[in-house]
Amino acid sequence: xxxxxxGTREADLINAQAQLIGFDDLxxxxxxxxxxxxxxxxxxxxxxxxxxxMQQSAxxxxxxxxxxxxxxxxxDLEIVVELIASDAxxxxxxxxxxxxxxxxxxxxxxxxxxxxxxxxxxxxxxxxEREGLGHDYxxxxxxxxxxASDVLRVPSSALFRSVDTCSVFAATQGRAxxxxxxx
Length: 183
Prior knowledge:
By secondary structure, the chain is of the alpha+beta class. It has two helices and ten strands.
């Protein structure tokens, strides 16, 4: 507990020293750990490319206020999809996704990585195949919620209720015959 308290106090001290730095007094940056006289340190939680600048003008910000958004577009690009609730409840993590109309010749592949209020899709296509795709691009996705092999696909308008089951008319040797259909 004592070490945690010391760590908290050291962080408070660094925060207080950082708040004392003014735009007219750049020399005070040397008082911070690893600081140089003309530096104003700005630490990012990770490396990457600047995607968005939230604060463009000189101003005083509270501690923890976002200044810019940084991301690794080449390695950690994700797709965020907003769905209505009735569609979102059908989506499961790990489900396959097809990304279309993204600007390249061929569709890309992805997988549902998590579902918050929005669906997050991780790209599984290799980086060279998705070259040119970047932050805040708009794409069309097809989230596969069900698949099976050896099925016949018919228009929903061809199905109708017959007694207790669904049925469809099938052409057999030039004649229409009633066939039960399992949906």
